[in-house]
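Subject — a protein and its fold

Tokens — whole-number codes for backbone shape
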Amino acid sequence: MGFEIITKTPGPSGVRPNLPDYRQGCRQFHWQQAQARIKGHEGGINIAFEALDRHVLEGQGEQTSLVWLSKQGERRTFSYRELQGLSNRFASLLASLGVVKGETVFSLCGRTPQLYAALLGSLKAGAVFCPLFSAFGPEPIRSRMEIGNARVLISSARLYLKKVAPWRSELPQLGQVLLYDCHGDCPAGCLDLDSALAGAAETFHICPTQPEDPALLHFTSGTTGLPKGALHVHEAVVYHSYSAWCALDLHPGDIYWCTADPGWVTGTSYGVIAPLCNRVTLVVDEAEFDPERWYRILADEKVNVWYTAPTAIRMLMKAGDELVARYDLGALRFLASVGEPLNPEAVVWGTRLFGMPFHDNWWQTETGGIMLANFASEPVKPGSMGQPLPGITAGIVRVDDQGRLTELSAPGQVGELALRPGWPSMFRGYLHDEQRYRNCFRDNWYLSGDLAWRDEDGYYWFVGRSKELIKSSGHLIGPFEVESVLLEHPAVAEAGVIGIPDVVAGEVVKAFVALKPGYEAGEDLLKSLMAHARKRLGPAVAPREIAIKDNLPKTRSGKIMRRLLRARELGLPPGDISTLESDEGNGHEHSPRS
């Protein structure tokens, strides 16, 4: 990609990585090592027990489990013992309401202490927990709750009245709605959660759960049709704990900030479960993104490990370097990124600004945990997703029109990223859609739908979603490669690339870019962008058209929606847009062909 390998993490921590020798770790790994990290509960496994109760039993109950920062500036701390008690109260409340093992509890919450109590308390009660992103509109909420057969909903009074109350009567199976922040005026047919928790028992006998008992339901958007509900089981905690230890280099006592909202799988798996299993202190910020606030949190809370998203990193880059100099970020030891592939420029920027690179990793809602990672002890190749975790077998495959699968062994060959099934956090099905689940597997491979290639050192590189690959004059072009080069241009804040029909080439590359402050659209800038792309990519790969927009359509987790760009460009149906966060706006359409 034109960037030098970062041969080590030059941070000042002096902390020995959990995985000091990657290749030796792979050779010596066996799943009993990961299983040994789990204590077990009454002959089975319970995620919440591993995250909380075991630490209290082992004498670590007074350690801070969670630091909560409110929008208004309040700072509250919860020890492991206090969070245990709060989750017990929620579990006791569910039991008193007649919620039984296997029923589904949905949450529609901001990043508040009640959400964390509900997640862990639901798992203690044997219920299946399904988080919803609080910024969803009424229709995405309703469709997910219908598919998931919601039995219980926890939310704030404000969110409920705005997004659920108008259609609640059409969901008869929704027996209980538990609302916090009612302030003495709870809506009809709902229960004041804060009052109910105050009166609930602080001791609770955790429901015995077996490894294959359902625990978590995460919805992920499809390209068409309804969202898919990926089901995960209590055994997933084995991999949650192990992968965070291995890929995020978590040590007991670390101060850890995962900026992902628990309404998404990252915010649940690595924002709550995995770090608590590794006995760290979580930093939870209720407020929305603000560069200065984020830097202040990193400094004031003395964060050691920071796990964030490429979109957020690019927004910090856009805010300028001078902000960083105002804060002491010397406690930082390890930076990681997830959500979409991290552009090389952002890795280099992190090294320059923080003295260490962001370590990108790759996984999906379906995998339930990190599959590929750039490790603390290994060189970082900017733009690469990294290498498989010990215990994970990855490969590059192709499936022909007859359904025959071929594994590609030579470095540099582009194909579909595939994984050998069987790791503990692998999803166990799509809710009510067994055929779609079976279609994810072929010849003992899980097919991710992501195109990638593997280099001679075993690092994997993202190309694009299989349906997003651009075929132009016999060339196969991955949109991520083109986007990464465009993001190197000093004027570009965001980039999205699609293929559009062309009578000669079949398809040509069209790029959409949003600009950084201080830059204005015009012919001179378009020529500069085109020249930069042609120099870095060559004329066969560089965009034939570039359109400048005020902003690009993104999911609420920050991914550019290439599918929606293409649909709008070609007048196609948009498919599922329930996760859409921002629209394109009224950008300038200077887009001459090169």
About this structure: The longest helix spans residues 80-96.
